[in-house]
TrEMBL record:
Alphabetized SUPFAM superfamilies for the sequence: Periplasmic binding protein-like II
Keyword Signal annotated: yes
Annotated protein name in UniProt: ABC transporter substrate-binding protein
Family matches, as PANTHER family: ARABINOSE-BINDING PROTEIN-RELATED (PTHR43649), BLR3389 PROTEIN (PTHR43649:SF14)
Length: 451
């Protein structure tokens, strides 16, 4: 799951970026030193209690299931905030040396930043490597560094195209299989109805991960990063594949073939529910999101694979995803690792809650590839077995590194996209501008940057 699953204002991220920028250089200098902390948890007779911070929907039921099936370890759940609200509290606690939970929910893009502070326990020392074969390869690689395991994957956001079948029929549109066809159908739609758009271009900060997912699909790999190789990092945000994506969407914007409303606004929600948007380029958690904000369109949507840059291709991208990490402050590393591994893990009972009630998209391969998940029918999508689209997408995603300054990178990208939308910057210059600012920022923080 992503904090963008229920998009809200992310102005708090800008505050967090400022605080992170002030401290990151010092953190990098200390990153090769020893970690530690006062830890949290309970002692004494009886089961060990492990404090968990998480914001998953219906998580209370998952905790109850874990506690019912585990005698010696019990989970005490705290909802400490969503996304940046939780991360800010976590960073404050880690810096203070006390107050962090034993186990914490973290989105994948946040892992390098938190790990850089020596705030995460290496669960590989407590048996977590045994789970490697239970998860899709790309997610496990984001959660680990060689034999060091800093997170256990939970859910992800493989991308696909949701589309209004009724509108496609009304305007005689073809379901596009390539981005070239997508543009052609967008022009056809807008000519038939100037008030209709193929989709909404995610230009604000809540859609930064959406844009990253699209460049991911196109083959862009903006970072080459491993905590074990600090302070080295590769940064290439302006490769040909990234530029191709931004110039493509910039062209759609300039020709008014897509809308430019900010995500997480009433106008965006209305666009999804009124027929203003014929498609929604979304993630594996999108069905739950869409069905909650566009309820009256139930039965009208279908899901198709993400359009490809090359006909017949099978390139995929991801938008969002989360994991469980154990913090360095835990006093019960063995039990905390057990909780991180088994709250969801390969538990059929937990995943039934996660799939049916929380619309999580599993990254545990036994669940991901199960007949139950792949064959599940969704009434909102006219009874379509939509996971027969999403599961191959998830299995086809390639490896991808995040940076330890992802918040700053997302802010910078959003700012440059905003300038392009206002005509202040050419779309062809957006990626170069972002590259210049990110490499300068990283060097000032003490990273040795290769381009």
């Amino acid at each position: 799951m992503s904090s963008t699953r229920r998009p809200t204002s992310r102005s708090v991220r800008r505050t967090a970026v400022a605080a992170t920028s002030a401290a990151l250089a010092g953190v990098l200098l200390a990153a090769c030193g020893s970690g530690g902390g006062s830890g949290s948890g309970t002692t004494g007779s009886g089961p060990v209690h492990i404090k968990v911070w998480a914001w998953y929907p219906q998580f209370k039921q998952v905790v109850a299931e874990f506690n019912k099936t585990h005698k010696d370890v019990q989970v005490d759940w705290v909802q400490a905030g969503v996304g940046q609200d939780e991360y800010t509290k976590l960073k404050t606690a880690l810096k203070a040396g006390q107050g962090a939970p034993d186990v914490v929910m973290l989105e994948f893009q946040e892992l390098p930043t938190i790990q850089l502070t020596k705030g995460l326990l290496d669960m590989g020392k407590y048996g977590a490597n045994a789970d490697k074969g239970n998860y899709v390869d790309w997610a496990w690689k984001q959660a680990s560094d060689g034999e060091h395991v800093y997170a256990i994957p939970v859910d992800g956001g493989p991308m696909a195209m949701m589309y209004r079948a009724d509108l496609f029929k009304k305007y005689n549109l073809k379901v596009p299989t390539t981005w070239a066809e997508y543009k052609e159908e967008a022009a056809k739609l807008h000519k038939a109805d100037p008030n209709a758009y193929m989709t909404d271009f995610g230009s604000d900060e809540t859609a930064a991960g959406w844009r990253q997912g699209l460049t991911w699909q196109a083959g862009s790999r903006p970072y080459t990063y491993s905590a074990s190789k600090l302070p080295d990092i590769g940064v290439k945000l302006n490769d040909d594949n990234a530029k191709k994506v931004y110039e493509y969407w910039g062209d759609l914007v300039k020709n008014k073939l897509v809308d430019t409303q900010s995500y997480a606004t009433t106008d965006f929600y209305n666009g999804l529910s009124t027929g203003k948007y014929a498609t929604y380029i979304a993630a594996g958690w999108g069905p739950g999101y869409l069905s909650s904000v566009a309820k009256k369109t139930a039965g009208k949507w279908r899901v198709a694979p993400l359009p490809q840059w090359t006909a017949g291709g099978n390139d995929q991208g991801d938008w969002g995803g989360s994991s469980f990490s154990v913090t360095s402050q835990t006093q019960h590393p063995k039990e905390a690792t057990e909780v991180a591994r088994e709250l969801f893990g390969t538990s059929d009972a937990a995943w039934k809650i996660g799939i049916d009630q929380a619309y999580l998209f599993p990254l545990a391969t036994p669940t991901l590839n199960s007949e139950y998940f792949k064959d599940k029918k969704y009434d909102f999508f006219g009874g379509q077995q939509i996971n027969k689209v999403f599961v191959p997408a998830a299995n086809g995603i390639g490896a991808f590194d995040w940076s330890p300054f992802q918040d700053f990178a997302y802010n910078t990208d959003t700012s440059e996209v905003g300038k392009a939308l206002q005509g202040q910057t050419a779309w062809s210059a957006v990626n170069d501008n972002v590259q210049d600012q990110i490499t300068s920022y990283a060097a000032k923080q003490g990273f040795k940057v290769s381009k």
